[in-house]
Amino acid sequence: QICLSLVKLLFYLAHSPLGSIVLLDFQPRQFVMVDGNLKVTDMDDASTEELSCKEDNDCTLDFPTKSFPLKCSVTGKCEGINERKNLFNAYRYFFTYLLPHSAPPALRPLLSDILNATGDLRYGINETMKAFEEVLHLYKSGLYLQKRPLLLKDYISLKGFRTVEGEDYKCWPSYSHLGCLLSIHSAEEAAAICNSQSRCQSFIVTQQRTWTGRPLASFQSSWTDLIPDTNAVVYIKRSASSGERL
What we know:
Elements lengths: L1 H13 L7 E2 L7 E4 L2 E4 L5 E2 L12 E3 L4 E3 L11 H18 L9 H12 L5 H17 L13 E9 L16 E4 L3 H10 L5 E8 L5 E6 L5 E12 H4 L5
Helix pairs in contact: 1-2, 1-4, 3-4
């Protein structure tokens, strides 16, 4: 969410009515999340000036660990230097730390491609935006889910119930520090996640939604102490419930 919001911001800066805007003091502390959107807190160090040049050799974009040769345009400006400076700073301050984590395994290669392409500046902001939107579409639609055996049949579902809240086993990347709370596309995906976790015996799907509209599921090591909740469905492994009375 943070990286996508940043890309949308950089897309706007690259195509602003004032021209391509570069953030000269590009640091994480210059940004803040407001209602799920990343915003710049200080525009004092923003500039629309692009480096003047006479030849391509005048257009080297230098960073502490990398340098990139750019083209000198017919108007005597280093072509796309503001856009690409913003994009590489986004890569080194945000993408490097955030993109490799939290995504479903099937989407990680696509995010790795974005990471590598922006790190080498093979992508401009238009290509980066398109790549992010494609990943978001796959994520929201569930098209990233590979064909796999149907596992939900191994669970008993009880509508209108959930387990008593409390600390349980933890997982990564959980939305709650008290247990294992993950976003899912469907109960079938939740069953696959539960089967992959040795301690999981049940999971609860509620009407809570993430910023992409995906429901949240809480994965539990037990299924006792059920309480009524009209907005929830609890799924219990048949193997865990065998011999027990529901």
